[in-house]
Amino acid sequence: MSAISSLVDHEQVSANAQACLAESESHNLHLKALLSKYPALIESADEACWDMLNEAKLMSVPAGTVLFHEAMECKHLMLIVEGKVRVYKDSPEGREVTLYRVEPGQLCVHNLNNLVNGLAYPIMAQTETDMQGLVIPRPIFHKTLEESNSFRTYVLRTLTERLSHMVDLVSGFAFDRLDLRIACWLNHEFEKGCGKPIKITHSELAQELGTTREMVSRILKEFEHKRCVQLARGKIHLQCRHTLKLVSQGKGKK
């Protein structure tokens, strides 16, 4: 009887081990699926990096949620797996300017900077759509940054790439006329949407570029007069891509 009991116990332990292994494999596959937009992170991830990722918790956030605001300390690293976040700066006069957006496969540079050096930045981050993200607590982030070569390289590369974007943004404010900035923004959005109408109000476009609705409306009317766009309520239609491109280069007809 003791031999039979021992055999049963052994089979039970083996079954439990197989179940745990299957559960672990299923978890790993699910995690890799969630992080499919982060190939640079997971393809070179070392053991310490995977330990961190396995500690991440999936969080759902509705559209319109403020994720962080001025002087707020970030307590987690966020890896967005679905949705979009707008990072922007506002002024005492109520004007806003979009700094950048964070989508699946990207990291928020201000989130990273706050986690690394503890400095709070005077900016806002708000979800534009319903969002899902993997959140990693600050202590685990720091531990992994010290122990994982692959994660440290990934963070440094991300900071470098975002810094380049911020330099371009500041250069645009400092040296480009507003009409050129609007034309370039329209060009980018029309290319991204394959020429489909852009759903945006004049006020929203003003917030996007850090100017006033009146200035945007005046410039868009000029573009319509040049027949590169057509304006409608809450929409901007593309009329002539070639003319719009010339305008964005400062070569459009007067």
Descriptive terms for the model:
10 helices, HTH_CRP, 10 strands, four-stranded antiparallel beta sheet, 254 residues, transcription regulation, DNA binding, DNA-binding, Transcriptional regulator, Crp/Fnr family, alpha+beta, Jelly Rolls
Q: What does the radius of gyration come to?
A: 24 Å
Kindly report how far apart the N and C termini lie. 99 Å
Shape category: elongated
Q: Which superfamily, in CATH terms, is the homologous superfamily of the largest domain?
A: Jelly Rolls
Major pleated sheet = 4 strands, antiparallel
Strand element count:
10
CATH C-level name of the largest domain: Mainly Beta
**CATH topology value of the largest domain:** Jelly Rolls
Structural class: alpha+beta
Protein name: Transcriptional regulator, Crp/Fnr family
Keywords: DNA-binding, Transcription, Transcription regulation
GO molecular function: DNA binding; DNA-binding transcription factor activity
InterPro entries: cNMP-bd_dom, cNMP-bd_dom_sf, Env_Response_Regulators, HTH_CRP, RmlC-like_jellyroll, WH-like_DNA-bd_sf, WH_DNA-bd_sf
